[in-house]
Amino acid sequence: MSTARPALKARDTRTLALRAATELMQRRGFHGFTFHDVAAMLGVSHVAIHYHFETKVRLVEAAVAAYCERFAMDLAAIEHAHTNPEKQLQAYVALFAGAASDQRLCLCGVLAAEMVTLPEELRSAVRSFYKQNEAWLVRVIAKATRKRARSARVQQLARGLLDLLEGAMVSERLLDNPSRITGAARWWISSLRYA
Amino acid sequence: MSTARPALKARDTRTLALRAATELMQRRGFHGFTFHDVAAMLGVSHVAIHYHFETKVRLVEAAVAAYCERFAMDLAAIEHAHTNPEKQLQAYVALFAGAASDQRLCLCGVLAAEMVTLPEELRSAVRSFYKQNEAWLVRVIAKATRKRARSARVQQLARGLLDLLEGAMVSERLLDNPSRITGAARWWISSLRYA
DNA sequence: GCGGAACTACTTACATGTAGGTAAGTATGA
DNA sequence: TCATACTTACCTACATGTAAGTAGTTCCGC
Hints:
2 copies of one chain form a homodimer.
Chain A: H1 10-28, H2 35-42, H3 46-52, H4 56-81, H5 85-101, H6 107-113, H7 120-145, H8 152-175, H9 180-191
Helix pairs in contact in A: 1-2, 1-4, 1-6, 2-3, 4-5, 4-7, 5-7, 5-8, 5-9, 6-7, 7-8, 8-9
The structure holds a DNA duplex.
């Protein structure tokens, strides 16, 4: 009797598992999802996930890496689509608002909140995400404010916007305030002219 | 032979358990601490905690309630200590910066990030915390900007500051940027004059 | 002011569920 | 025939929670 399921390409299960894990974590955090949850979403046994990822940490590592890569592509796409730095910031904000409108948080934002309970490999991946975003924001905000990218003020503004967005994602979902992120960010961006 | 430990007053263990649970959650989140962790901090068995709190959820409920109460007292103390609304906002920011300097997050901020995995009793307690803070900030920001407290702009500013602080707590710890919260907040408060 | 009942605040031992992970076997396609 | 991508069955660790027992404390009638 046939027990194995009709052949999916390996890449399918691997990729789908990564996607499922990412989505589950964005909603529930690292400690809020299990191998079984991922497997159930694909209709396979949890051991099928182990076949592609030795451990939960390796699965999450791969999910974070893919997430960061996709984010980097989004950032590049924004720079390609707009030349005006304010428009670029608005498009950046829309990235966060988009996930939030689907009740998902920033993957690295959730993991950052759980930081102390994560193994070091994951922590440093999350740190890179933040640094990658800060560096991009520094470039764009420097253009928008006509200040030097190295200035402490620009650095601080970049960190502030990132923190505002990460914080707003959490509370937009908690309190069901649909335009919380865009509302706060719009004011924030318009205040830049007084920086 | 004596197995029971030298008598502590009931209130001691109850209060200490609450304190321990709060601190553990601020560092590790709801899913990042166990009854055993709490018990170990007090040098008792985990069943001693069950004696005072039927379930983990009840323990956390009580911890959140105490946290909100303490926060409300802090807010009242700030209003008593300062009349200038900008000073009040600075003192408010210092509340968050103080916890962060001890590597602790806002209890309700962590729980908000874990929201989907929490039982409804806890979710609504966390929501009240946010609303309590927003309402207080609305009052103070209205004074600072000489706008009506009901105006949508003041509402939005209040939400923005709260979100900024919650987000900055997470990243200050993640990236070990000691003055991240105060730095971002100082700029934010000074921008209020252009609101 | 004394013996005992009842209460408080624990203890050890145990039950249960579930998550992560392993071992060994099997269907499918190259 | 071999590798790939699974399957079922199993193991271990540990978290929540329960059962039953015990050491001190308090209260109460006599």
